[in-house]
Amino acid sequence: MLPLLTSAGHNATAIELAASGVDPQQVDTVRTISQYTQPLMDYLSALPPTEKVVLVAHSYGGFAVAQAMEILPGRISVAVFVTAFMPGPAYPSATLFREVFLL
C-alpha cells in the first residue's frame, strides 16, 4: 500500500507499532495498549501543531488508531479501519485489548 500511495504523490509513512515489524520489543513485554501504541503516539506528537493525518488501520492496528483518536483528535483528519479491530462506545479499546491480548 505504501508504494502505491507514494507513487501517487501522497506523503505516506508506515508506523511500526510496539513488538511489530522492525520494532525490537518482544511481544511478551507489551502489556498495555499504551505501550503497543507508543510509536504512533510519538509520531503524531512530533507533527507540527496544525498538521493533520489520515490514519489507516489493519488488524491490531485498529487499537492504535482508536487510542490516537481519543488522545490526539486534533492531529487526525480521518481514520480508516480496514479489517481492523474497531472499538466503540459500548466496547472501549482497553476492554477489547484486554480480551484479545491477555486471555
Automatic annotation (TrEMBL):
Gene Ontology biological process: jasmonic acid metabolic process; salicylic acid metabolic process
Domain AB hydrolase-1: 9-90
InterPro entries documented for this protein: AB_hydrolase_1, AB_hydrolase_fold, MES/HNL
Domain of life: Eukaryota
SUPFAM superfamilies linked: alpha/beta-Hydrolases (SSF53474)
Pfam families noted in UniProt: Abhydrolase_6 (PF12697)
GO molecular function, one term: methyl indole-3-acetate esterase activity
Protein's recorded name: AB hydrolase-1 domain-containing protein
Species the sequence originates in: Linum tenue
Origin organism lineage: Eukaryota, Viridiplantae, Streptophyta, Embryophyta, Tracheophyta
